[in-house]
């Protein structure tokens, strides 16, 4: 995950001025995350909110009295002169993207990103050796642990079984793009909120990652996932 200061420093560098006119930075927030101390204490979480010109309070259809109060308290402390809008499923007025950039407050450098090169590991950087059908990758950081899998282009999953596996996995976050009998599906689950999108063009491989704040039985999850392969 890119740190806000790194990204904004690059986009506003003098070398890019002839080509990039940086407009408002939007941060999409599920206010219920403000009730999670682990999320609130995460450096990237805080700094992404701090960097934004506009805060998009997403999933307003899932708002609770507690999350509304948490957002109001957070906004009173940190909102300042910035703009806040509500949204459902991230649907916003696209003219917001052309709002001018006003938030130029200095941002801290991330301790995890300081003095190091961009990561060359992680699920996104994985590839399969010749004739290798699948591979697993484990990682952890900032109080979370994750497990991801990559499968070759010939591997196809049972659609209903895969979606049930995603829905029932005892983790806080699931994201991936997987080949299924009907083509491909993009999966995004946060907590109990599951969003799926069918894709017209199949990806070159299948990748899926689970992230958890607690210990998870990756071997058991892997066994059940492998059973869902149709080919």
UniProtKB/TrEMBL annotation:
The record, for Gene3D superfamilies, names: P-loop containing nucleotide triphosphate hydrolases
Q: Which Pfam families match?
A: cobW (PF02492), CobW_C (PF07683)
Q: Which residues form the CobW C-terminal domain?
A: 146-229
- Database matches in InterPro entries: CobW-like_C, CobW/HypB/UreG_nucleotide-bd, P-loop_NTPase
Question: Coiled coil located at which positions?
Answer: none
Record function comment:
Zinc chaperone that directly transfers zinc cofactor to target proteins, thereby activating them. Zinc is transferred from the CXCC motif in the GTPase domain to the zinc binding site in target proteins in a process requiring GTP hydrolysis.
Protein name listed in UniProt? Metal chaperone
Could you tell me which species this protein originates from? Klebsiella pneumoniae
């Amino acid at each position: 995950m890119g740190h806000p200061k790194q990204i904004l420093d690059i986009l506003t560098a003098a070398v890019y001025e002839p080509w990039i006119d940086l407009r408002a930075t939007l941060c999409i927030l599920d206010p219920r995350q403000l009730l999670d101390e682990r999320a609130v204490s995460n450096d990237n979480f805080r700094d992404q909110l701090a960097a934004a010109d506009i805060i998009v309070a997403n999933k307003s259809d899932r708002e609770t009295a507690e999350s509304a109060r948490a957002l109001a308290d957070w906004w009173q402390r940190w909102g300042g002169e910035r703009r806040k809008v509500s949204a459902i499923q991230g649907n916003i007025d696209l003219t917001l993207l052309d709002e001018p950039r006003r938030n130029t407050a200095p941002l801290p450098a991330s301790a995890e990103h300081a003095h190091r090169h961009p990561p060359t590991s992680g699920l996104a950087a994985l590839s399969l050796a010749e004739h290798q059908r699948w591979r697993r990758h484990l990682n952890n950081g900032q109080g979370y642990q994750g497990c991801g899998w990559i499968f070759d282009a010939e591997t196809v999953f049972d659609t209903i079984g895969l979606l049930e596996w995603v829905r029932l996995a005892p983790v806080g976050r699931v994201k991936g793009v997987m080949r299924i009998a009907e083509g491909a599906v993009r999966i995004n689950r946060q907590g109990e909120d599951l969003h799926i999108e069918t894709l017209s063009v199949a990806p070159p491989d299948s990748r899926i990652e689970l992230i958890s704040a607690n210990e998870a039985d990756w071997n058991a999850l892997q066994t059940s996932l492998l059973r869902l392969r149709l080919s």
